[in-house]
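Researcher: Re-running this chain for the archive, since the previous output was lost when a drive failed. Same request as before.
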Amino acid sequence: MTLAAWRMTVTTPNGPGAIVLVETHVGAVFRGEGIFLGWAQDTLDAAYRALVPKAPSDANAHHPQLG
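Model: Regenerated structure tokens:
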């Protein structure tokens, strides 16, 4: 059963590609497309995590509590 899935589209000098992250009840699975096709799971995992935008580290940021 799929719990969540994300697709990250990437454009590189070597061509376009995408990394799909699918989270299931037994763990995460990555799928490479385009430039990432054929990459190993651990390599896709590292690339995906390196490309995810980082949240601002502003300690004074106010995040309202909703609900």
